[in-house]
Write a structure and sequence with these properties.
There is one protein chain. The chain starts with 5 loop residues before the first strand and ends in a 6-residue tail after the last strand. It is α/β, with parallel strands linked by helices. The protein folds into two domains: 6-120, Rossmann fold, CATH 3.40.50.2300; 124-214, Orthogonal Bundle (Arc Repressor Mutant, subunit A). The chain contains seven helices and twelve strands. Strand 8 and strand 9 form a beta hairpin. 29% of the residues are buried. It has helices at 21-26, 37-47, 63-72, 105-118, 145-155, 164-172, 181-194, and strands at 6-10, 30-34, 51-55, 79-83, 97-100, 119-122, 125-128, 133-136, 139-142, 162-163, 204-207, 211-214. Strands 2-1-3-4-5 form a five-stranded parallel beta sheet, sandwiched between helices. A four-stranded antiparallel beta sheet has the order 6-7-8-9. The radius of gyration is 19 Å and the shape is elongated.
Length: 220
């Protein structure tokens, strides 16, 4: 099962032909729209978006303040900011990527896809691949390189049962299965980072006699 990523599109009122939701919907994303800062922050909590697109040209609130609020709340969600033609990029605002008008459909969707590559999200688990950090329930944890690689492998294969042999090869680059205690210990550590109760895991589940799988929670 391939997870359907949610994109929060924050844009003000403009001609119907200029709205960006249909473009993102056509790429298979679940698009949630907001027009005000308050509504956008509420949708962040409700919809758990994997990427946020801020159309600064049409908004009547401070994008800097919005990004500051995300950071202060430990919400590590990548932000793509859309800028007017010719406006200088100010990276201190806090967005992760920028795109100037006018842009093509392909440029927009490529930027969103690039951000999804750097940030993986399933349910309430948000994993920054580049920083080796994971956020769950607003708590941020830094992982060791091996823990990070293990979590990345799981999150790139959601709902699939991954055998011990596959995991040992992907994370430790070995075919040796004489002792897989190292794998079990690392699974335990990853569970402590992403589970409410690591003794009763919701995400990282054991399939007895086969291996492990990263469960995609059903939407309520």
């Amino acid at each position: 099962m391939t997870p359907v990523y949610t994109v929060l599109l924050v844009e003000g009122r403009k001609p119907a032909a200029e709205y960006l939701a249909p473009v993102l919907n056509d790429q298979g994303y679940n698009v949630v729209a907001a027009r005000t800062r308050r509504d956008a922050l509420a949708k962040v909590q409700e919809a758990h978006p994997a990427v946020i697109v801020l159309d600064s040209l049409s908004l009547r609130f401070s994008c800097r303040r919005f990004c500051d609020t995300l950071r202060d709340s430990a919400l590590e969600i990548p932000v793509l900011m859309l800028l007017p033609d010719g406006e200088k990029i100010d990276r201190s605002v806090g967005a992760h990527a920028y795109l100037h008008y006018p842009f093509s459909t392909k440029q927009l969707t490529n930027q969103v896809a690039d951000l999804l590559t750097a940030i993986l999200q399933i349910g309430d688990v948000v994993f920054n691949v580049e920083q080796c950090s994971v956020i769950y329930s607003k708590h941020k944890r830094h992982l060791t390189p091996k823990e990070a690689r293990l979590l990345e492998v799981f999150m790139r294969h959601p709902s699939q049962v991954l055998t011990r042999a596959f995991l040992m090869k992907q994370v430790w680059d070995t075919d040796y299965l004489g002792d897989t205690r190292t794998l079990d210990v690392h699974v335990h550590w990853v569970r402590k980072a992403i589970e409410e109760d690591h003794a009763s895991p919701v995400y990282l589940r054991t399939t007895r006699g086969k291996g492990y799988r990263f469960e995609v929670p059903e939407k309520e």
